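# nightly structure sweep
# worker-07 picked up a monomer target from the shared queue
# config: single-sequence mode, recycle default, output format = structure tokens
# input follows
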Amino acid sequence: MAKCYFPGCDAHANTKEHIPPKSFFPDLKRMNLMTVKSCKAHNNEKTKDDIYALANICLNSIKENTNDACDVFELNVKPQLMHNNEALLKKVLRNLSRRDETTSKFEVDSSRLDSFFDCLTHGVIYKKTNKKAELESYAVRHIYMNLEERDSRGSLDQGCIAMKNYCNQNLLHNPQISEAIEFKVKTPKGYSTEIYSVRFIGADFIDSIKSDSFNSSITVVHKFFDHFLVVSLLTRVPNFAKTPVHIGL
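# output follows
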């Protein structure tokens, strides 16, 4: 029997996980959605994190109540926020305050976003390569390009700002980088890339696809509603158990 797509999980894959979930798409734009074989823990049991992530993505993508993000929020998110005495709504809009006359700000639980994007990132990698990026070989970090990160003093985190600048200059808007090390994937006919699109970047990512395992660091760029960007960095770490040791005498 097939195993779950998620690295380190040996459970039987008795369900199919949509990546991203169907709830991210308007009803009329659900053609040829991507799926991977999954266990229950990495599908149905993570629904709350899926809705939490979708709520934050929609709230950061809605434009004048006319776009797909608005439709998805009204139909697929808003009803969920009202359950259990608005428990999820209170979590999504934690510490809500006014930023200026037209916008508001609220605190985001980054651990829940990370949990969602861990699954999505490993899901799309497995879908495109039929391989798992083993957890012990990679350090994973998600860069939320549309969100503000603040340090313990409440000031903007300068390290995060520098990382976002690097991503903008070298990964997102550099055609030479894209041409040299981006792995091009074919989009299924009818798939709505304006709702979700994904890019894969890695120095020897293409060669890795032809081998039994990944050998390089991998960058996955997620884009929702043509607006909300997340750069997922899977940085290859040394595996000393597999590294020859040379002793000089």
